[in-house]
Structures are given as structure tokens and as C-alpha cells.
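Example 4.3 (complexes with small molecules)
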Amino acid sequence: MDKKVRALFEPFTINNLELKNRLFMPAMGIATVDENGAYTDEAIAFYVTRATGGVGLIITGANGVKSLDEKKIVCTDPAPWFNPDAYIRAGLEMTEEIHDYGCKIFVQLAAGFDKLTKETLTEQIKHCQVMTTAEVRLLVESFAYSAKIVKAAGYDGVEIQSGELLDGFTLALFNQRNDCYGGDLKNRFRIVTEIIAAIKEACGSDFPVILGLAMKSYLKVEGQQALPGEEFEEQGRDLEEALAAAVMLEAAGCDGFDVVAGIDTPEKASYWKYPPVYFDKGVYLKLSEALKKVVTVPVLAAGKMADPDLAAEALEKSLLDAVGLGRPLLADPELPQKLKNDQRKDIRPCLGCNDGCLAQQIAGLEASCTVNPACNRELRYRIEAAKTPKKVVVVGAGPAGMEAARVSAVRGHQVILFEKSYGLGGKLKYSSQRILKTADPQLIHWYETQLQSLKVEIRLDEPATPEKIAAINPEILFIAQGSEARMLTFPGMDSEKVTNAIDVLTDKTFVGPRCPAIGGGLAGCEAALHLAMHRHKMIIVDSAPDILAAGIPMAPANKQMLRDLLVFYRSEIITCAQLKAVTEEGAVIEKNGQERLLPAHHVMIAVGFEPTNSLYEALKNDYSQVYNIGDSQAIKNIRAAIWAANEVARLI
Ligand SMILES: Cc1cc2nc3c(=O)[nH]c(=O)nc-3n(C[C@H](O)[C@H](O)[C@H](O)COP(=O)(O)O)c2cc1C
Ligand code: SF4
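Answer. The structure with flavin mononucleotide bound is encoded below.
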């Protein structure tokens, strides 16, 4: 093992529980449950797959200790209390298997957890005000009751999730109670200290109880989030208060802290809780470092910690005691094992897109992972060897083409991949050239490594023609030709001032200080942000009533952060407006029937993309198995492209 990362594989203890290494998976509530609130076989496979991959500790997604809806007869969230027998049966099966791999597993317990809607979250916070003292004690008892069931199911400990209803108690902003659960810090955290004590009494003092604690809310006035590095006045919990609370909670028997930040919203737009691609690595390290200085129990922290050097250095510098890998383990459950075996190049990176995991969950769909469609579907998405190896040609090395080539090669087919440009990646390679998207080049490198080791013949700088394909005579043909930037027709469209998002991102056009973006979709906004961060005065013009509204909905946390970043970098956003012309002076737009000149050195057109499907149309009847995949079939996003390619290549 690379000695740089050896520290990550040192054992440590929480309470008396020995953990084999310092890598843990933080809570991510994506695993499925049955109508009893008990984990399904698919959920068991999801967690066991992570244990097999070498992580030392898993913390399950949030389990509710009590429902807001007392009359419910079916439970669709994980809930130990709902049908204890069913929960224990599934739990025993899961924990036994997980223990076989030397991994440990805690259950995250959350108060008043239910499918959160805007109403229920506000109700939960309000609920804190109207609960009688007796009801608060019942809630404390319900934590102990659930913890007892969790222990009976073979789990090794619990994590109390201090958000949602408990935020209602612990944050002065929300808590206006006059009894012993309101007022000063001690009273506001009394409910948490009582929960710890009640669990210890029910499960024994050696049963580990840790707390997921948001060390800072990053809440500005009017409920807005503060960006990293932004100066603001904290309206929620500040670090000093969190440190004081942690000292108190350690004295009350808390066995460890799992550092997080932010306040969750029903829309799941908290970018501190679900850190998007626009964050730097090591999101919570400053917070965990401060906490390490005041408590003696273990401090755990996730938050974009997949860089092994950063993780090992954080451990060495004592910024934390265990490194959390949440989404990185969705993207690649074998990450710990690969790190141990010096196979860093084979670790599939998480993009921070929140699209395959969080956005799917919010939409009520099957949560998985953009780059790993088998995530959370391990029982159904195995890649099986093909009965008869075939000759496969893939045209286009964007995400869809690379995935189709990879899966086909894993199945044993002989694969030739054509790419007309200088490198793999398709449009991913343009966005990846920019500082904001460090994970994208890693994904391209990952595909490059996989395709090379699978002996895929990669033909770069070589456009595929019908003749070349005919000469190979493939039995399976994937066409993943991608898309072209859509153009608008307007007076001045041929002006040298006119450019597009890709030309800007690739420095094909060196734009002047003023370069309005026409189109506020993802590509336009990211290119605009790139320019705004480089001191360009940006104006984004969109014909819709809002930016980032068209296409597949973005994960709310990513959308909110991108929007906040644009505002932070002083970009002006003009909606419900159309481009009329580009003149010597700049862009002429029309809004509400009134024309306005936006003085400009360049005008960036970013109104989306159009499928390039000429090759598919030309060849679709020439081969028995021809598949048009990715953008050349329909303009979607990276997730849709990879998932579609994986699906087709896995099943044909
Ligand atoms: C899909 C998804 C579900 C999550 N569910 C929970 C949850 O149930 N409880 C919780 O405390 N945090 C939850 N989180 C936050 C994670 O525990 C973690 O703090 C966050 O993803 C940052 O770590 P990472 O960068 O390693 O993913 C969730 C995050 C994601 C992406
Ligand atoms: S869906 Fe995106 S953010 Fe979520 S784990 Fe996968 S790559 Fe990471």
C-alpha cells in the first residue's frame, strides 16, 4: 500500500467499538424499504456492496423514530418502531453479512422524520413550539425505543441526526419555548442530552451513540445561504455555539461527532448539506479542525473528501479522526479496496452533480448515481459476460459512447471506438477545462484507463464514415455522435462579436470584458460564471421567466449554489427577454416591448444544443443492431447519457 495513505487504514475506536480503518460512509437515505419500514433485499445488497468494498463503518440513511402521521398504516421510510419484527429480521440479515467483511454499521435516527414537504418541515419546526413538556419526553423515549430495536437487529451503534425537528429545539432562531427545553444553550440542547442518556439507559453505556452535528448554519438574513468564503452575519448556529454544545454533549455521554453544516430545507436546496461540484474539496475540514481542539471523542467528517492525499493529510494534521466518503462510495463502492491495492487510477470519481442520487430521490424515482448506474440496484444491474463475443463499433467518445464501449468490452465484446476530435470526453472535456469542474477530467481519465485496460481500440482524430464502418462490418453499432450548439437567427448573427459557450470555455474566443450570455441554461450559466469569476461583467439574458429552468431539472442544491455564485460575482440576470440583434455596439434585447442595448465586446449565444444524428439516419437500416444513444438521440444530460448507454450495452 502507498505509504501516503497508510494512516487511512489504521484502526480506531468509538466508545469500545473497534473499527478496522478510518473510512466511513455517512448517512445517505437512498436505500429502499418495504411497507413495514424494513430494509429490502435491494437495500441490503446496496449496503453489503459498500462493506465488500472495504469501508470500515457505514451509517445508514435517516430512520424515523416516530411519525408525524400517527394513523399511518404503511411506512415508506426506514423506521425501526413501525414493525419491529420485520425491521429486526431484515436488519439481522444485513448486519450479519456486513460484519462478515469486518465492517461495522450504525443506524441514523432522526426525530419526526417523514417524507418532508414544505408544510411538514415548517410544521416540524413549529411543532417544537407547541409540543407539551410531556410530548418532548415521549419523543426522547421514542429515540430510546428505536435504538433498542436497532441494537436487537445487530447494528453496532446509532447516530442521532440533529437536524429537522431537533434543529427546531437547538437553534435559538426557531426555539421560543419557555420551559426547560427553551432559552439558553443548555436548555435548547437539553433534548439531545436526554436522548443520549435515554439511549444509553436502554442499550447500555457501551453502545456507541454519536451525533450528526451541523457546526455552522451558514444562514444569512431572509433564509439565504452564505457561500464559502462569503462575509455575512450568521443567523443560525455559529461555530462558537456548536463548540460549546459539543463540549456539553461529550460530557453527557456522546461518543463521537459527525461534522456537517447548513440547515436542510424541504426542497433539499442546502448546498452545505449536499455540497455540489462548485465546492472545493474538504468542505467541513475547518469545522472539524475546530471541533477536534475541544473534544476528546472521535470527530468524523465527510464533505468531498475523496482525494486520498487530502484525506490522509487531514488525518495526519489531526483535523479529524475518520474520513467520510458519501457520494464517492455511491460512485465507486470499491474505493477503499482500490486505494489499499494502489489502484487509484481505477477509482471512479463522484462528479458532485447530485443528479443521479439526490435529484432522483427528490423526484420520487430510484436514487442511484450518474456515473455508476448499478448503485442501489446491485441485484439487477450486474454486467454479465456475453454468450457470444461480437464485433462492436462505437461512434463518438462522449459519456454515452465511452460507457457503451466500456460495458461492451467488460462483457467480452471486441470494441472499436471512433472519435473525431483529439481526445475522449465529448462535451465533458470542454467543461472539464474549467476550474469549477475538477471531477470531470477525472471521469475522462477513469474511462481512458478502463478502456485501455479492456483493450478497446480507440481511434482518436478519426471521424467514422459509413465506408470505414462497413469495412469493419460490426455486429453491433452504437452511434453516440453528440450534439452541436444551437444557433439563433438574428441581424448581426455573422458578426465577429458572436460566439458560443464552448468556444468561450475552450478559449477559442478570448472574450472582452463585456460579454452578455444569451441563454440561461446550465451551459450558459456555467460559462457566464467562469467569465464572471475572471472579472468579466456578466449579464445573462433568458427568454423564460427564470434561468436554469429548461431541460432536465437540476438538483436543487446545485441550482441554488450556481445561482448564488452568479449573484455573488455580480452578474445581472434579465428574464423574459429576447435577443433582437447584435450590432457594432453590442446586443440589442427586447423586454416588455422595450428595446435595450447591452454594450458588448462579444455576445455569447448559449441557447442549448441540437442532436447530431446524420450518421444514425444514414445507417439505421444497414445493420441489424444499431443504437442511437446520448445527445444524438435526444438532448438530456450526462446522467441520462451514461444510464441509457449502460442499459442498452448491458442487455443486448
Ligand atoms: C442522496 C443523499 C442523501 C443523503 N441523506 C442523508 C441523510 O439521510 N441523513 C444525513 O444526515 N445526511 C444525508 N446526506 C448528507 C451526507 O451524509 C453527506 O454529509 C454529504 O453527502 C456530504 O458528503 P460527501 O461529499 O462525502 O457525499 C445525504 C446526501 C446525499 C447526497
Ligand atoms: S449522482 Fe453525481 S453526486 Fe451523486 S454520487 Fe453520483 S456522481 Fe456523485
